[in-house]
Amino acid sequence: MTTGKVIPGAESFFYPGNSIGILICHGFNGTPQSVRYVGESLADKGFTVYAPRLQGHGTDEFEMEATHYQEWIQNIEVAYRKLKQTCTHIFAMGQSMGGTLVLDLATKLPCEGILTINAALEVPEYKIYRDHSAPRFITEGAPDIKDNNTSEITYDRVPIKTINQLLKIMDHTSQQLENISCPALLFHSPEDHVVPAQCTTNQIYNSIMSHSKKLISLGNSYHVASLDYDKDLIIEHAYHFIKENSKGATIAS
User: How crowded is residue 18: how many other Cβ atoms within 10 Å of its Cβ?
Assistant: First the structure.
């Protein structure tokens, strides 16, 4: 369990609602703050929404350094089970590495559907650090957001040890895609300066076995699209996707 002080605004959030639960996962070096707008908007439509804070995120880079990717997988599975206590239908949604974790979740636990936002199966700028232990920390640039009037809570530097954990979860998930068969809605930003959007999203689309799967282009957003100009477009499409795949559950209009 995390022991560091959580950065104000970076906390997990949970909004109780109807029997349709939506698990939302933030990305690498992000926090629930990056998906709060989307989460609150879906909660306003009546859904039960839970966004956990991943181990090592939203505290400090030293705590992040001690984190293993299996802990992130566990964080998401625990969140799923929390929603299952009160919800009959579970949808899982993830931004960047959160999308990677959601894909992994769908290979093991039943989901009515998954939604990914610029899911990360490859981060080119991190490749050079594979299996390296130095330098200890890598300086991070500004979050990749087109809207200059918004900001994301992140660390200014990340441990190279944890970058390698990210590489491992991306490798692991890439090999599991053919085990996914639930409905999928895949958002991607054509202009993404972190993840090669077309390549990664097309890989997911072409590899998963879902009979119902759809690509949505976010033409006015960069990588952190959940905070960018297309965030309302994400909410609109997500709502209709959830409505279509809820198998007769009572849903807000």
Answer: 18
Taking the C-alpha atoms of residue 127 and residue 66, their distance in angstroms, rounded to an integer, is: 20
- Is the distance from CB of 115 to CB of 239 less than 8 angstroms? no
pTM of the model: 0.95
How far CA 50 is from CA of 39, 80, 122, 184, in Å, comes to 8, 9, 26, 19
- Segment 224-236 mean pLDDT: 98
Dihedral sign of CA atoms 25, 59, 120, 209 in order: negative
| Residues recognised as catalytic | 96, 192, 223
Residue 134: the pLDDT is 96
For 138-184, the pLDDT digits (tens) are 999 999 999 999 999 999 999 999 999 999 999 999 999 999 999 99
